Amino acid sequence: MSKAPAAAKVDIGRYLAERVDEIEKESAAAGTSLRETAKWIISGIAVATAGVIAGTSLSSLGSLDYGARYFEALGAAALGYAGLGMLFAAALAVIVPRDHTLQEISDGTDVPAGWRREIEKKLVPILVPDSVKTLKAFVAYANDPKDEHGQPLSGEPLITFNLARRLIGAKAKSVERELQFRRLKWRTFLVTPLIALAFLAYSSLANPPAEKAVPAMAKVVDVDPDDAAALRGALGGPACVGAQLPVIVLSEVPSGVQNVVTVPAAGCPPVRLRLDHGRLSKASP
Question: Does residue 63 register a pLDDT over 70?
């Protein structure tokens, strides 16, 4: 009869050792699979993005004046690269993960609060001893493990506890890997469309419609009162701007915007203007 407790202890120790080995192997295999999947996701996004960028002619970007279109193009490119940076950071956390200790997870050190709660929820059923109900309590107990009589653990009980601690640590690592991959998956679904739209916008903004030459044509444009003040400064004085302004059309883009030049008059030299659906403004140099 005296041998039964010893046998039970040995069986518990063997079970824990086998369980720890099993979870560590499963965690390693799952980690390898997640890393390979993360590499495929990022590689696919990078190739697709490179294709969009390669198909975009940048020669027209330098010809844009430092106006709204130029800064909108830069903003779209910056947004696209920021999205890529977010995905690469999430993928890097899966490919080259940082292993947090149970103490760090308990304290929330570099671990989101939601992750800490989810990890603890998965660990509570396997925490030891039975009096321990939270991860923080387990970490405190693990720093100075004692038996029910308040004596420090030693011998087989200490070996069994250390195996249990390895089991809990391996489980925490496995759950954290799953959370890291889940973050990558959601960021991929949410950010990838934004990256595509950003680079498509950049492609459009960086390559404005080419101007097409049109037969020189004289026309009279009604001057919008809101444009009059700026036009007086551009044309040389109030005498050069009336209710109507005679111009000659030089070129036109598919959107209908025309480049025109004013008809010279006494004291009013010819000046190139931009005619955008009835609104006149000074043309870019």
Answer: no
